[in-house]
Design goal:
Low-confidence stretches: 49-54
Largest sheet: 5 strands, antiparallel
Strand order of the largest sheet: 1-2-3-5-4
Bound molecules: adenosine-5'-diphosphate, magnesium ion
Mean pLDDT: 91
Structural class: alpha+beta
Number of strands: 12
Order of helices and strands: EEEHHEEEHHEEEEEHEHHHH
Distance between the termini: 56 Å
Helix content: 25-40%
Radius of gyration: 19 Å
């Protein structure tokens, strides 16, 4: 187990919807740091508490645990442990040192170069494919739930608060609790969706935002019917990748395993015409 009393709580580093995130340093070896995500327990969690401590009562913990068995993915934030207090759950997470959210990074960096975007996207794809292999649908991939460290641009996927187990059945629209502007169109149109095409959609949404500094779609209407405005500075391959990830029909969309094989990731192969 993890002894919280050996840690000194420092600055608040995140103020999310369900609680606050603090950095904490080990009292004796100051260089050892963790991030503490503190969440207020809901009535439901209190009720589930009756089951005891052997199984995680938080879906967020349960989903993260699926990803923590070796071999782990370096692009998914590590869950060291969790602690249950009377009114709170505290997730003890790997602290991403000198990081920004991808959202902040995009805002602070003018015209991100494709080489940098490629570096980020490779890592995000690695994280997403790892989740898919372990049967986890993250459900809330957007730039505020992605951390980027400086100066090496290492990417860490965080916030499994909307994550769900992948089963043979499709998800319903009501299962989607993530950011509305990142919802795949099939969830809106058909009311059901599958994890992998939804992942590919969010990869397209993320790459678009990295290259343009703004979201591809701002509302449900434009997700379903709007056309995307592509900046002319983008390479043909980059435009092709974005467009193929954002094909509205999930059957025609690029498949998850095809994304990292796309020629944009391998600049020596010729561009599509
Ligand atoms: P919520 O579920 O409330 O959205 P998040 O898990 O997304 O909470 O965390 C909120 C914010 O806290 C993030 O956007 C990020 O800025 C910061 N944060 C979260 N986890 C870490 C971490 N492990 N290291 C550094 N910063 C973090
Ligand atoms: Mg979040
Ligand atoms: Mg959350």
């Amino acid at each position: 187990g993890f002894d919280l009393s050996q840690f000194e709580v420092g600055d608040m580093i995140g103020d999310g919807t369900f609680g606050e995130v603090y950095v904490a340093s080990h009292k004796r070896s100051k260089s050892v740091k963790v991030a503490l995500k503190c969440m207020v327990k809901s009535q439901e969690d209190r009720y589930l508490d009756v089951d005891g401590h052997s199984t995680p009562v938080l879906a967020e913990v349960a989903m993260m645990l699926r990803l923590m068995n070796a071999p782990r993915c370096p692009n998914i934030i590590r869950l060291h442990d969790w602690v249950e207090l009377e009114n709170n759950f505290v997730l003890i997470l790997e602290y991403a040192e000198s990081c920004q959210t991808l959202h902040q990074y995009i805002r602070d960096t003018v015209d991100i170069e494709e080489n940098q975007a490629r570096r980020l996207m490779r890592q995000l794809i690695r994280a997403v494919m790892f989740c898919a292999e372990r049967g986890v649908f993250h459900g809330d991939i957007h730039t505020a739930n992605i951390l980027v460290t400086q100066p090496r641009l290492e990417l860490k996927l965080i916030d499994f608060g909307c994550a769900q187990p992948i089963t043979h059945k499709p998800f319903n629209r009501s299962d989607y609790r993530g950011a509305g502007n990142c919802m795949p169109p099939e969830a809106l149109r058909c009311r059901v969706f599958h994890a992998n095409p939804a992942y590919v959609w969010t990869l397209g949404i993320t790459l678009y935002e990295i290259m343009h500094g703004r979201l591809a779609f701002n509302n449900r209407q434009s997700i379903m019917f709007g056309s995307i405005q592509i900046h002319p500075r983008l390479s043909t391959a980059c435009v092709d990748l974005i467009s193929q990830c954002l094909i509205r029909n999930p059957v025609k969309r690029l498949q998850l395993h095809q994304v990292e094989e796309h020629c944009w990731f391998n600049p020596t192969t010729p561009n599509p015409v």
